[in-house]
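[step 3/7] fold_predict: job queued, chain A
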Amino acid sequence: MNPIEMVEKEYMRMDLPSFRPGDTVKVYYRITEGEKERVQVFQGVVIRKRRGGTNATFTVRKVSYGIGVERIFPLHSPNIEKIEVVSRGKVRRSRLYYLRERRGKTARIKERL
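[step 4/7] structure written:
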């Protein structure tokens, strides 16, 4: 194992649940505003998961008041307090960008059993 992999392994988080694109997740993200610190919950569908060791990220999409909102989270960030998997989705793609054009019932994802 080379020295870079050893250092990266220290920063990897092993307490996160396994999830895939299509799953609906709740991300509890710690936000610091000045001296105040609070936890913000972002719930939506995972439309992308990018691997890459400590640089791994995932994108979550939700529709808030009729406007689509997407947020990219670093997977191993210390600011993520926890991730809850609300439901598992059954999809046949790894990148669900087509959900951006869908509205209403066509944007639904079947549940995986």
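[step 5/7] annotate
The longest helix spans residues 3-11.
The CA atoms of residues 89 and 109 lie 6 Å apart.
exit 0
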